[in-house]
């Protein structure tokens, strides 16, 4: 009788332990991770619209606010982008993006003098959600 009680208690403790372990955050299935996009997700088509001689307002309209503006050199704008895929994106086959760095140099009058790093950005940016705006997703007439 004593041996039967000990076995029953041991099985009960083991069952509770396994159940709590499988429900904990430290489970063997891993932890859910979110996507981490940082910076300005640009494409080569957007960068190709920027031409030497454009003003700062025109560049800001085409590419958005620069990721980095140097306070010691306001004539240099840097657009940097990195993307670390989360759990769902990795399962969908999306790769991380890093090393995307565009540098635009302006002269003292605010005109583009040089554009460097355009080839570091891809043709399309993976991992970006589609627009929820019905006008942008409308079918052509």
UniProtKB/TrEMBL annotation:
Keywords linked to the UniProt accession: Cell outer membrane, Membrane, Signal
Gene Ontology cellular component annotations, sorted alphabetically: Bam protein complex
Keyword Glycoprotein annotated: no
UniProt GO BP: Gram-negative-bacterium-type cell outer membrane assembly; protein insertion into membrane
Domain Outer membrane protein assembly factor BamE, residue spans: 41-115
The keyword Membrane appears for this protein: yes
Record's signal peptide: 1-25
InterPro entries associated with the record: BamE (IPR026592), BamE-like (IPR037873), BamE_dom (IPR007450)
Subcellular localization(s) per the UniProt record: Cell outer membrane
GO molecular function, a single term: protein-macromolecule adaptor activity
Gene3D superfamilies: 3.30.1450.10
Quaternary data: Part of the Bam complex.
Function: Part of the outer membrane protein assembly complex, which is involved in assembly and insertion of beta-barrel proteins into the outer membrane.
Family, similarity comment: Belongs to the BamE family.
HAMAP family: OM_assembly_BamE
Protein name: Outer membrane protein assembly factor BamE
Originating species: Aquirhabdus parva
């Amino acid at each position: 009788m004593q041996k039967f009680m000990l076995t029953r208690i041991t099985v009960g403790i083991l069952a509770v332990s396994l159940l709590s372990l499988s429900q904990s955050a430290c489970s063997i299935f891993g932890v859910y991770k979110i996507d981490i996009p940082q910076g300005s997700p640009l494409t080569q088509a957007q960068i190709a619209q920027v031409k030497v001689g454009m003003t700062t307002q025109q560049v800001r309209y085409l590419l958005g606010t620069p990721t980095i503006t140097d306070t010691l050199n306001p004539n240099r704008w840097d657009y940097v982008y990195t993307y670390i895929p989360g759990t769902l994106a990795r399962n969908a086959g999306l790769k991380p993006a890093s090393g995307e760095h565009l540098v635009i140099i302006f002269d003292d009058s605010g005109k583009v003098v040089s554009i460097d790093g355009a080839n570091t950005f891809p043709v399309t940016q993976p991992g970006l959600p589609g627009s929820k705006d019905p006008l942008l997703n409308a079918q052509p007439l």
